[in-house]
Amino acid sequence: MVVHRLVRSCHRTTGHYVVSQAVPTVALMTRRHDGQSRVALGRWGERRVARWYEAAGYVVLDQNWRVRGGELDLVVAKGDQIVFCEVKTRSSDRFGSGFEAVDARKQQFVRRTAMSWLDSHDRRGRLRFDVATVNGGSIEIIEAAF
């Protein structure tokens, strides 16, 4: 039997609410040094986070939505709230956490791309920007990260 553990806590540096879920590590990818494996690892993490949102009652509206000059990893909705989630997948914290990779420049980029998504889909609602990290077998999500 596989047991999933859900932990809610406060992120140590930002003070934002964090939802963590420990998940089994059966399907972790082996590390290779070519770009193809990094892309595959990122897509794998995005699928894991999408399943987490679905289990939490959200509907996945888009995944890997691209527009000239940008991409949104995940767009989900629950009620009238639309959530844009930036997903960072890591095989280790050797080069820093995924949360640290979403700096002010990246946040502005995600916001601008989200506005393009809203315009092209003619959707309106309350907006939220989350950051999710997948590291090993665990998923951590900072809701309303920016």
Q: What do you see in this structure?
A:
This protein is 27% helix and 38% strand. The chain is α+β, with helices and mostly antiparallel strands. The chain has a single domain (5-142), classed as Trna Endonuclease, Chain: A, domain 1, CATH 3.40.1350. Strands 1-2-7-6-5-4-3 form a 7-stranded mixed β-sheet, sandwiched between helices. A hairpin with a 2-residue loop joins strand 3 (59-67) and strand 4. The longest helix is centred in the N-terminal third of the chain and has 21 residues, at 35-55. The radius of gyration is 15 Å and the shape is globular. The chain starts with a strand and ends with a strand. Mean pLDDT is 81; it is low at 1-10 and 22-33.
Keywords:
single chain; 146 residues; alpha+beta; Trna Endonuclease, Chain: A, domain 1; 7-stranded mixed sheet; 7 strands; 27% helix; 38% strand; disordered N terminus
Entry summary:
The chain has helices spanning 35-55, 104-121; strands at residues 5-10, 17-22, 59-67, 70-78, 81-90, 126-135, 138-142. The protein is of the alpha+beta class and 146 residues long.
| CA-based shape | globular
At CATH level 3, the topology is Trna Endonuclease, Chain: A, domain 1
State the share of residues found in helices, binned by percent.
25-40%
Global structural class: alpha+beta
The main pleated sheet reads as: 7 strands, mixed
How many structurally independent domains?
1
Percent of sequence in beta strands: 35-45%
Q: State the helix count.
A: 2
For the secondary structure, the number of strands is 7
Mean pLDDT: 81
**Which stretches are low in confidence, meaning pLDDT under 50 for 5 or more residues running?**
1-10, 22-33
Q: Determine the N-to-C terminus distance.
A: 37 Å
Strand order of the largest sheet: 1-2-7-6-5-4-3
**How large is the radius of gyration?**
15 Å
